[in-house]
Write a structure and sequence with these properties.
ATP synthesis, proton-transporting ATP synthase activity, rotational mechanism, 5 helices, mainly alpha, transmembrane helix
Length: 107
């Protein structure tokens, strides 16, 4: 699958209009419904290629877009989610500089 192509599992006659937030592959047991002894075989069935990872990230992005950003009446939630996410990201990348400014009671 190249950039801009539909997934190979997508069939317009069967699935109808393309939805980027939907997985068109063979359905599998959701992770929340697994028993502890099935987790290893569930991970073994996953497609671990970089394109599969990017496809999962793309589907997550579009699901977030459809739920929070693109509804007819958008609330303030996506703005706060981006704000908290960016604050967390910049805290993590600057933690090495911030940790030297701690105030200890005993020197």
């Amino acid at each position: 699958m190249a950039i801009g192509d539909y997934p190979k599992e997508y069939n317009p006659a069967v699935h109808g209009p393309y939805d980027p937030a939907r997985y068109y592959g063979k359905p599998d047991t959701p992770f929340g419904q697994l028993k502890l002894n099935e987790i290893g075989s569930w991970f073994a069935r996953r497609n671990k290629t970089p394109s599969a990872f990017m496809g999962a990230c793309s589907r997550a992005w579009w699901r977030w877009q459809h739920k929070y950003v693109q509804p007819k009446r958008v609330g303030i939630a996506p703005f706060f989610q981006l704000l908290v996410g960016s604050m967390t990201f910049f805290y993590i990348i600057n933690y090495g500089k911030i940790k030297h400014h701690r105030n200890y009671k005993y020197h």
